[in-house]
Specification:
Length: 326
């Protein structure tokens, strides 16, 4: 499979762009465990055009996470073109357009999956962005706005025809949000369309090696993008790749390994963001790393309220000592 200049071997696995999750330290961790491509948190076109500090910070990428995509979103064509040009200056491997986010404050403005109510505008916006930048442009979207407007099959052809390099499809409508099961049948239909020449990447509910294998085999997609299943579980890429290659399921990491991984992630977060922000932004990940531990509530509270980096590391050592032999 090829996207622009990037050649992917085998059955590639991508890390989905997720707000407040796929920051540089988490992207780094997922790359360590075999993610073939990672994406930034989605970036507001309005924020980029206004030079908003927090938005510009999201454009920071490094060579050790390549190939990496910057994902942008917005509802107006001109600011989106300008945002794509600004993003291009950070030298991403691809620029991805977010036509999939279902969050109310985004979709109701006509951005993200809200653009599916206006597919003519969506395609025109994409065409102009493709023409405005010199890096490959990709799109992430959904099946349609609701069950009465499942437009993805026609839309895929139209987006391809204006020049996108790959298409990621989440197997739900906007109205579903993240409820119910993802429906991959239309993703498969898009992939099997003889007019489609670009890579089709499937997304939605892939949370185990067995499901990943089943989706590759049943729908023939070129790659799989994984989102929520990576929370506190960056090793999911390693486990899936091992299963696809050998048919063997790897055991889940024990507490000792989870502590080691959490420490690596924590130190990378501090390196990238500095002590204050690095500690604060790790809190959303810490509790996910240690789900399921018995009698963990008190220690979890300490871990999620500790501001001193060394004390947080000491707590991780305590977790290993207390729960490591269970």
């Amino acid at each position: 499979m090829k996207i622009g200049h990037i050649d992917f071997e085998g059955e590639p696995l991508f890390l989905a762009p997720m707000e407040n999750v796929t920051d540089p330290s988490f992207r780094y961790m997922c790359k360590q465990f075999g993610a073939d491509m990672v994406y930034t948190e989605f970036v507001s076109s309005d924020g980029l055009v206004r030079d908003a500090y927090k938005t510009l910070e999201k454009l920071k990428i490094s060579d050790d996470e390549r190939p990496v995509g910057i994902q942008i979103y917005g509802h107006l064509i001109e600011p989106m073109i300008e945002a794509a040009k600004i993003a291009e200056q950070s030298k991403p491997d691809v620029i991805d357009i977010n036509f999939g986010c279902p969050v109310k404050k985004i979709a109701n403005r006509g951005a993200g999956s809200g653009m599916m109510k206006d597919p003519v505008k969506m395609v025109e916006m994409t065409r102009q962005i493709v023409n405005a930048v010199n890096v490959p442009v990709t799109v992430k979207t959904r099946l349609g706005w609701d069950e009465n407007s499942l437009i993805i099959c026609e839309l895929a052809e139209q987006l391809q025809d204006v020049g996108i390099a790959a298409l990621t499809i989440h197997g739900r409508t906007r109205s579903q949000l993240y409820k119910g099961a993802a429906d991959w049948t239309l993703i498969g239909k898009v992939k099997k369309n003889k007019r489609i020449r670009i890579p089709i990447i499937g997304n939605g509910d892939v949370n185990s090696p067995e499901i990943a294998k089943e989706q590759f085999e049943m729908y023939g997609i070129d790659a799989i993008m994984i989102g929520r299943a990576t929370y506190g579980c960056p090793w999911i890429f390693r486990n899936i790749k091992h299963y696809l290659k050998t048919g063997e399921l790897l055991p889940e990491p024990d507490v000792d390994e989870r502590v080691k991984i959490a420490k690596m992630h924590f130190l990378k977060s501090i390196e990238v963001k500095g002590e204050k922000v690095g500690v604060l932004e790790m809190r959303r990940h810490f509790s996910s790393y240690f789900k399921g531990l018995n009698d963990f509530k008190e220690t979890k509270l300490k871990l999620l309220t500790e501001n001193n980096p060394q004390e947080a590391l000491n707590l991780l050592d305590y977790i290993k000592q207390r729960w490591g032999n269970e």
